[in-house]
Automatic annotation (TrEMBL):
SMART domains: AICARFT_IMPCHas
UniProt GO molecular function: IMP cyclohydrolase activity; phosphoribosylaminoimidazolecarboxamide formyltransferase activity; phosphoribosylglycinamide formyltransferase activity
Keyword Disulfide bond among UniProt keywords: no
InterPro entries named among the record's database cross-references: AICAR_Tfase_dup_dom_sf, Cytidine_deaminase-like, Formyl_transf_N, Formyl_transf_N_sf, GART, PurH-like
Keyword set, alphabetical order: Hydrolase, Multifunctional enzyme, Purine biosynthesis, Transferase
GO biological process: 'de novo' IMP biosynthetic process
Descriptive protein name: Bifunctional phosphoribosylaminoimidazolecarboxamide formyltransferase/IMP cyclohydrolase
Residues that span the membrane, as ranges: none
Domain of life: Archaea
């Protein structure tokens, strides 16, 4: 456990914030102030933190004052010193005697050092300011006089950018930097020290953070985006919303994609969300592919020799649910495909281009948004993320793409080559179905989809119901089944057998795998295991 000596001259809000959240398990051994009336004393005492008051006497030198501070701290054990609005420049008398000393400064050093960083930032007209946590170094000469050029000049540990908005004054900017910047950066720095992730080399003027060179998941994730458009509303009419664009993204994206029928309504929050999901599916396939999406789940997906055939097969999986849905294509949309798309109500169609004839057909529908994302190209975004209250989840993208060699046959019955092809198609598609997910496929087209269930056997039953009730010219009889995670019990296999499923692809890994395999053998079902699952929870 890392123990801290805090030093403040006023409220010590950063110190209290660190005390309250204990980053990396760090805790305060003592808080010292040079002002007996400083509010930080009462705040620390309420938290059970010992306090010391060492005021500077009239005529007392910096070094003499700091010698008394050292004496006051001598009875406490600590490994780190944290300053917070400590209104004295420290000399080597203190810094040489104590462990690493940190300070937080309200600007992105080396810009705007000194006492009025907020005003200097506003006067300069910058659009971004922020804060810097840095190592405190001696900024005095041999006589103890301050060398202004060396103030706030120690090596940087971490920084946090904060936007400067039109109409900001010093108070509004200072408050934003404190609560959005310092309250993020200072605990981060303390946590790094507490976890032993920081190497300080004062001779070289460098601070190195271990594991902060990872290409995908570094110690700190920083990003920025520009507002591309305000939306009519969010998921529901009472919610405001906007879409932001990352102009560094090289992957084909719906954000900023031109809407070719200018008279149609603009894209809504839900349109963006659903269309992004639809585009993600068709990017999986090399052959002509179509996905029809409703509420981010595929109502149907298919590949075929032509785009029009792929659309017809995808739509026929569940044409009823496709009403008001999203159509994604992975080829330039031709007129044959366009004429099918407008046969029923769709919200959006997205493709890497359109022929002139196709565009003429599609724009006949007044409120069908027609998006052109351009060629898919080689760009690839390696991470996905989800905002949480108070944080964010970031993970590597699920880019698995299996081949026949990756599949382990675990049943007495061997799958045919055709079934293997169908299972591989089903696996690439089920990656995009909300878990718990079950997907039936025949050839390279979906037959029934059971999405987002809390019970896997329920997902099997829903996929069966969709195949038998809503699919046009399709049946679960003779189809293959994909499951995004293992079957915990044989009941899912038994339900699949009742539906007529003849082959299953699933991850395996359940404690009941033997029972599940036995059930497949009893029903003469071929089963392969992938050894990896493909959950999609959002």
């Amino acid at each position: 456990m890392t123990r801290i000596a805090g030093m403040a001259s006023n409220r010590g809000r950063n110190l209290m914030h660190i005390a309250d959240i204990a980053p990396g398990g760090a805790e305060f051994a003592v808080i010292l102030t040079n002002d007996a009336d400083a509010p930080v004393v009462e705040k620390a005492e309420k938290r059970g933190i010992p306090t010391e008051v060492v005021e500077r006497e009239d005529g007392e030198s910096r070094q003499a004052h700091e010698a008394r501070i050292n004496d006051a701290l001598a009875d406490y054990e600590f490994e780190l010193v944290c300053l917070d609005g400590y209104m004295r420049i420290l000399t080597g008398e203190f810094l040489d005697a104590q462990p690493t000393t940190l300070n937080v400064h309200p600007s992105l050093l080396p810009a705007f050092p000194g006492m009025d960083a907020w005003g200097d930032a506003l006067d300069s007209g910058v659009s971004v300011s922020g804060c810097t946590v840095h190592i405190v170094t001696d900024a005095t000469d041999d006589e103890g006089e301050v060398v202004e050029s060396e103030v706030d000049g120690g090596p940087v540990v971490t920084q946090e950018p904060i936007p400067v908005y039109e109409g900001d004054d010093e108070d509004s900017l200072a408050e934003r930097i404190l609560y959005q910047g310092e309250f993020a950066a200072y605990p981060r720095a303390v946590r790094w020290f507490a976890e032993g992730n920081v190497d300080v080399n004062l001779d070289a003027g460098e601070v190195t953070v271990a594991s902060d060179t990872a290409e995908q998941l570094p110690q700190r994730h920083v990003e920025t985006a520009d507002r591309a458009a305000e939306l009519r509303y969010g998921e529901n009419p009472h919610q405001d919303a906007a879409v932001y664009v990352d102009n560094t993204c090289e992957e084909a994206s719906i954000v900023g994609a031109p809407q070719l029928n200018e008279g149609a309504k603009g894209m809504s929050y839900n349109n963006y969300n659903d269309t992004d999901a639809a585009l993600g599916i068709v990017k999986e396939f090399d052959d002509p592919a179509c996905a029809v999406i409703k509420h981010t789940n595929p109502a149907g997906c298919a590949t075929a020799d032509t785009l029009a055939e792929a659309y017809e097969r995808a739509l026929s999986t569940d044409a009823k649910s496709a009403f008001g849905g999203i159509v994604a294509l992975n080829r330039v949309c031709d007129v044959d495909t366009a004429e099918q798309v407008i046969d029923s109500f769709k919200e959006v169609v997205v493709a890497p281009g359109y022929t002139d004839d196709a565009l003429d057909v599609l724009t006949e529908k007044k409120n069908l948004r027609v998006l052109d994302v351009g060629e898919f190209g080689e760009g690839y975004e390696p991470l996905t993320q989800k905002d949480l209250v108070g944080g964010r989840l970031i993970q590597q993208r699920d880019d698995q793409k299996l081949s026949a060699e990756d599949l382990e046959v675990v049943t007495e019955r061997e799958p045919t080559d055709e079934q293997i092809d169908s299972m591989l198609f089903a696996w690439q598609t089920i990656k995009h179905v909300k878990s718990n997910a079950i997907l039936f496929a025949s050839g390279t087209e979906t037959v029934g989809v059971g999405a987002g269930q809390v019970s896997r056997v329920d997902a099997v039953e829903i996929a069966t119901m969709k195949a038998e009730r809503d699919a046009e010219g399709k049946s679960a009889e003779g189809a293959v089944m994909a499951s995004d995670a293992f079957f915990p019990f044989p009941d899912g296999i038994e339900k699949a057998a009742e539906a007529g499923i003849e082959a299953v692809i699933q991850p395996g890994g359940s404690v009941n795998d033997e029972d599940v395999i036995e059930a497949a053998d009893e029903h003469d079902i071929a089963m392969v295991m992938t050894g990896q699952r493909c959950f999609r929870h959002d």
